[in-house]
Amino acid sequence: MSEDLDLVMDYTESSMQKAISHLESELTKIRAGKASPGMLEGLTVDYYGAPTPINQVANITILDARTLSIQPWEKSMLAAIERSIMGGNIGVTPQNDGVQIRLFMPPLTEERRRELVKRAGGEGEQSKVAIRNIRREGIEEIKKLQKDGLSEDEAKDAEKAVQDHTDRFIQLVDKHLAAKEKDIMAV
Question: In 10 A of CB 122, how many CB atoms?
Answer without folding.
Answer: 11
